Amino acid sequence: MPERLFDPARALVLSLKPRFAEAILDGTKTIEVRRIMPRITVPTLALLYASGAIRALVGTCVVRSVARYPTEELWQQHGAHTALSRAEFNTYLVGRDSGVALLLEHPKPLAVPIPLHTLRQAHGFRPPQSLAYVNHAQRKRLLAA
What we know:
six-stranded mixed sheet, globular
């Protein structure tokens, strides 16, 4: 997808458990569930940071749309595409009336994942707890690390 079609201001960095990053990159996870609505214009490029034992930037994808749903409707419409069990979904959104669905497209793994120590040394990168925003110059530097 041509870069000029993305949000002109910034890209999104999604911090994910390794199994979810892998599922996005292999195309089995096309919906990312979040508690909070990200402040983005779609489509937006997303950088995928795998946390846990991986601790690396592992790929990119495009956030095609973002929508808030009542929790039950979110599960009914998108649960099969979240790579979550119903119990995991319920635990993640416990106490919430609604959740946010990010529709992900065009997953692209990096040829070589960029480890956290390289990202820190080269760019002072700190992995986000959940998500973060980077401008396009920062995105290019991170992906070139």
